[in-house]
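Researcher: Final request for today, and then I'll write up notes for the group meeting. The sequence and the SMILES for zinc ion follow.
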Amino acid sequence: MSGYVGRFAPSPTGPLHAGSLVAALASWLDARAHGGKWLVRIEDVDIPRCIAGADQIILSQLAQCGLLPDEAPIYQSQRGTVYQQALDQLISTGHAYPCGCTRADIAQANAQMGLSKQRHGDLVYPGTCRPQRGGLQGKPARAWRLQVPDAPDDLLVWHDRALGEQHQHLASAVGDFVIKRADGLWAYQLAVVVDDAAQGVTDIVRGEDLCDNTPRQILLQRWLGLPATRYLHTPLVLGENGEKLSKQNGAQALDLNAPLAALQSAGAALGLTAQASNLRDWLAEAIKQWCDQHLPP
Ligand SMILES: [Zn+2]
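Model: Predicted protein-zinc ion complex:
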């Protein structure tokens, strides 16, 4: 086996749908094409959004498609101690600070600064509670934030295997972002970075909708002293309405009676034209095509 470790990290908020199968298939194919390991991680860190039993449904859907993880899945809901250690490390190195702002406070600060920029419905955090600006000033701590570099030329630059060079200025695009939420839950960004390192993940293959998280995750990796990962973001599957397929907008669950047909459509979304008429041969053909498309000759 090569040193490659890849992963698929579904949230158990419902069964897999056509869009999430594309992400699963892409990460599985890339791992197999590299002769590497493929892991599954259940991202149930946002407990209130999770549905009991959805993890088992997802794992059985993957199995019916022939996508079998090389190790038992891990569950983020069981990893709070490790996330706390990471937060403690970021606090002790001066990279994390407590924030007492409510959503309304952040909206008001944005308005006062003449900022109206919203990103995916999120306001850019203006750094109100930064230690250098006086910290909490008597407000109770609600969330913990990561202090991002804010010099004008402090671009975070990274390479994506499909999209090429990417960059983001974190301070103006996102601001200091939450790593532990006001409701006490761990933020997605922190959990993902800590878990990828703990599982030895070398390569992240996922849908383009998550591309925008990459700079925050790279910054966390750097400040936690964790190894860098490679990235490949795959095109999103859009529904007939032109919107991203998701559980939120009513994407259909996969038909488990026809796993080959489900894989063929997922493969088509990735530009694969494998033709074989049984699951095993189809997957083997798809791996060869993936190698031709994504691995250097
Ligand atoms: Zn604040």
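Model: The mean pLDDT is 91. Residues 99-101, 128-129 surround zinc ion (CB under 6 Å).
Researcher: Thanks, that's everything.
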